[in-house]
Amino acid sequence: MGVLGLRVVAAALRSVCGARSLGPRRLCLAPMAQNEKALVAVAAGVKEELDKKARNRQGRIRVWEETDQKVKKLKTSEEAEGQSKKLPKRKVVLLLAYSGKGYHGMQRNVGSSQFRTIEDDLVAALVRSGCIPESHGEDMKKMSFQRCARTDKGVSAAGQVVSLKVWLIDDVLEKVNSHLPSHIRVLGLKRVTGGFNSKNRCDARTYCYMLPTFAFAHKDRDVQEESFRLSAETLQQVNGLLACFRGTHNFHNFTSQKGPQEPSARRYVLEMHCGEPFLRDGLEFAMITVKGQSFMMHQIRKMVGLVVAIVRGHAPESLLACSWGPTKVDVPKAPGLGLVLERVHFDKYNQRFGGDGLHEPLDWAAEEGAIAAFKERHIFPSIVEAERHEHSMARWLSTLPVHDFHASALAAASPASKVPSPLGGSEEGEGDTD
Predict the structure, then answer these.
(1) Which of 153, 159, 367, 408 has most Cβ atoms within 10 angstroms of its Cβ?
(2) What is the pTM of this model?
(3) Cα–Cα dist 91/132, whole Å
(4) Active-site entry in 120, 121, 152, 432
(5) Which of the 8 DSSP states describes residue 432?
């Protein structure tokens, strides 16, 4: 092979691997030509070195591909586990309606699982639907949970509102309700400001108390429950007594563990009246509506209880005025079954944020139909059924003679009880607990 042939072979090798890849065996086309056998040996060595490099390069590629596949699989797994965590977490309010029969109130009692509450079922549904992590269900402070009213045992609600932080999953209301019993419903959801607190932002609460009208029959009359009808005169007397609750009074006798000197015992009632009677399954009922800034535990039930006791003739009318004074007065507590949290009001919040273009007003006008339907299906029937079969009101009425109302009235009217009136105070603090 001549010099020209050697140059052709060298050029071919350079085109394949480049001049540098030949390393110490790089061809040197000196004027003295090498023979063909030497060239073949050199070419064989170069080929062996190139094959070795190719194998190493392929090995590195395989290692990289396997490593990359493992990383990708791990990343996918992490994404699947934390998919809900990437959803936006926002402060919202939920509009709740529930029948309180069979429950020990609204507020959850941590460590007392034998006493079932509305919040027990609600939090469990939020966890199962993927709105909150399981750890938040164990510690409700983690989701900034707050309720407008701590309704008591057996008390229902048509317009309870709670505030909390949740993951805004798709079809959130449908998914939460799918994990709730039919007598508890989430009827609405709205975004609110980050620092919103449903209890502190609530301006007023409206309750209604549904009771059979035979509760107002005089104790000396022998009446049949189903045939009793409330007269216009008795209804006028009832409303006259209920009107006395309007304004600011010291309600220490209408709750427990409150002294007459405690400022928090003073509460402001905006409205209280009894509507026209109506029939349910042949039994006549009436609805007492009361609106106030806030109420203490059992306050509304005791307000209704005292009016019933006066109308029936067990207690003198003077006892109502005496109940504002410092003397302890024996005030009966009506059954919790008839009490319903009708609505909560956020007037100041709506004025400030309802029209800012970012937040919705908390008026629930669009949900009125669903609220009315829930009451007709779950709340009112449970009250009527309990009165029909359990005689809830009738059994309570039989306990009224046990109370010594006249002794309370005499004690309250005695000169020794005329002490300075309690100091005034704000309506802050405990919120609604009836």
Answers:
(1) 159
(2) 0.76
(3) 12
(4) 152
(5) B
